[in-house]
Amino acid sequence: MNRSLYLEDLHVGQRFTSGLYNFDRDRIKAFAVEFDPQPFHLDEAAAQDSVFHGLAASGWHTAAATMRLLVTGDFRLAGGLIGLGAEIAWPEPVRPGDTLRVESEITEISPSRTKPDRGVVVVRSITINQNERPVQVLTAKLLVFRRAADATLPQLL
Amino acid sequence: MNRSLYLEDLHVGQRFTSGLYNFDRDRIKAFAVEFDPQPFHLDEAAAQDSVFHGLAASGWHTAAATMRLLVTGDFRLAGGLIGLGAEIAWPEPVRPGDTLRVESEITEISPSRTKPDRGVVVVRSITINQNERPVQVLTAKLLVFRRAADATLPQLL
């Protein structure tokens, strides 16, 4: 596990990896019951007749699982992974039995123009299944802090 | 409840509404334990010391709850709400006790150039709390079918 990363520790092109997340049938359905109750996420037979041609996880389940993989992976920002916004795409469905991992890369770093203690880092995270197929592409803007911001804290105490 | 909507039934500027979704402390923490285990989503004291200054829901919890509101609201596309991709932003945190609703508007309709039975509709969905503050802005591309595509089915049987 990395130590917490500050703005000064980051550079464009820096890469991060994650552990694994298994999608089983029961989890796919349980998520769908709570958040995305549509037939192709809930029922095998109905899913066969849909554009998915079989049970598929909600894209928001994939997004949530990706967040777990990011938070528990080696991309540890000081202050946490705090998203301001994102672009997301789901090029292929996630199926029961799929095992996902996430590969991330920093594509942009922008120090704040108004708040000297922070900045925004853009991270492209591709969620990949066991067949090396991308099932989600997430480009997220995350809040990142400068080490100096923390360093001022002891002086105030 | 509306009947299912096809491409021919949609127009730019068309609006849709949802029911309500309550965020309580236990749900916020349970979602975070499973998908976004960071201190400011899990623990009141830790959240006080974070940029959120108090317990806040994971943005992915807000996204998932928004999907529930969309699926159970009056925006009923024939074939279901199938997202190809989206842009998402979280302008303010969701707090314990918040009650959210979603207001959606169609901003773009693009018939497919290669598949005559379908198209893509862009829908802007603003998730609003009980104080009329937007907590999420989602601009999603959804798959939409033409009525004609279904009408051909009986001819094949």
How many angstroms separate the termini of chain A?
30 Å
Give the quaternary arrangement of the chains. Answer: homodimer
**Strand runs of chain A, count:** 6
Helix and strand composition category of chain A:
alpha+beta
CATH superfamily of chain A: Hotdog Thioesterase
Order of helices and strands of chain A: EEHHHHEEEEH
C-alpha Rg of chain A (nearest Å): 18 Å
Poorly predicted sequence stretches spanning 5 or more consecutive residues of chain A: none
Helix content of chain A: 25-40%
Quick one: CATH class of chain A?
Answer: Alpha Beta
What is the count of structural domains of chain A? 1
How many alpha or pi helices of chain A? 5
Mind telling me which CATH architecture of chain A this is? Roll
The amount of beta strand of chain A, in percent, is 25-35%
On the 0 to 100 scale, the average pLDDT of chain A is 92
Note the main sheet of chain A: 6 strands, antiparallel
CATH fold label of chain A: Thiol Ester Dehydrase, Chain A
**Cα shape of chain A:** elongated
State the largest interface: A-B, 34 and 34 residues
Written overview of the protein:
Two copies of one chain form a homodimer. By secondary structure, chain A is of the alpha+beta class. Chain A has one domain (7-156): Thiol Ester Dehydrase, Chain A, CATH 3.10.129. Helices cover 28% and strands 31% of the residues of chain A. The first copy, chain A, contains five helices and six strands, in the order ββααααββββα. In chain A, strands 1, 2, 3, 4, 5 and 6 form a six-stranded antiparallel beta sheet that branches. Chain A binds chain B through residues 31, 34-40, 50-51, 58-61, 63-65, 67-68, 71-72, 79-90, 143, and chain B through 31, 34-40, 50-51, 58-61, 63-65, 67-68, 71-72, 79-90, 143. Strand 3 of chain A pairs antiparallel with strand 3 (83-89) of chain B, so a sheet runs across the interface.
